[in-house]
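Suppose you are handed a protein chain with no further information: no name, no annotation, nothing but its sequence. What can you learn? This example shows the usual starting point.
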Amino acid sequence: MTGEGLESVAARLARLLVDGGERLSDGQNSELCFEPDIEPRPLGAGSPPIETWAVDGGQALVADARCLQVYVTRAAKVCFRDGACVVEEEGQLQAHLLGAGQGPTTLAEAGLELSGDTPADVNLLRDWAEWSALAECCDRAAPGALLLVDGDLVPDWRLPPSVAAEPLEQAATRGLSVAGVTKHSSLSRGGAPLVGQLELEAAEALGPRARWWAPVARTRQGSLWPDLQVVVAKLDPDARYAFRIDIPAGLPAEEVLGTLAWVSDDAAFPGYPYPLSVADRLAACPGWLRQEAWLVLDQALERAGVPGPARERAFDDRHRLMERA
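A reasonable first move is to predict its three-dimensional structure. Written in structure tokens, the prediction is:
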């Protein structure tokens, strides 16, 4: 089997990036109804948030036997008030055994009441942890606070709709504003990245340092997804990138974005909410944490009577060993 060659691929890619088209998509079986006209518009200054909470999840593969994997996940929470970080919680590390029919057991241990044939993977478990953390933030946040989530506000398709509906309804009842910020969006127009197209259009129409936003889509009527409005926005004059932002349909989008802009002052990444950057760093599972988790797991297996050769044959990385040769 042979590919078509890089020159041919480059030619087709160039046509998409330069010429594009009109068909809009979010890269999956969409429950979104797109706006007929998508045009960037200026974003005015909003009111600073009373306090800002941010949630992000992390994961790491600890041991891989191909047919079985051990993962760890966690969901971090931070809160900023009056410019200072007053809550900084990396989240409890949760271990999961996946593969070879372990899905139902893992789901039950994680507190997920799903059918026994639901396919389980680390993405599902991480998503569940993030929504659980958001629900906790709804309980702890001051009325009028801003709640931020890394990624969109669409739960994993295997989760029941109530997982997202309940915290979003609670947030609305308590006067909380919720926004999901996606760093790298799959939204497209004519097969090419929509966010990049809007960045160029906004720079030409409004100027390179303008803050702007563009309504993109809403959840289809009757959808199992939360009732959302999806926008693209550039939140800082010095920002290089704009982002997809999901906002519950009952909130005034421009007002929420104006408030969000107050905390989108990450010095290393202008235009991205700084509280989310902090949550991302806390939730990350670096190499040392993975190694520490493996040592704990390996010692537990030894105490359980699993011989060293059996552990090595199950979990040694043959590729890594061959690359060292």
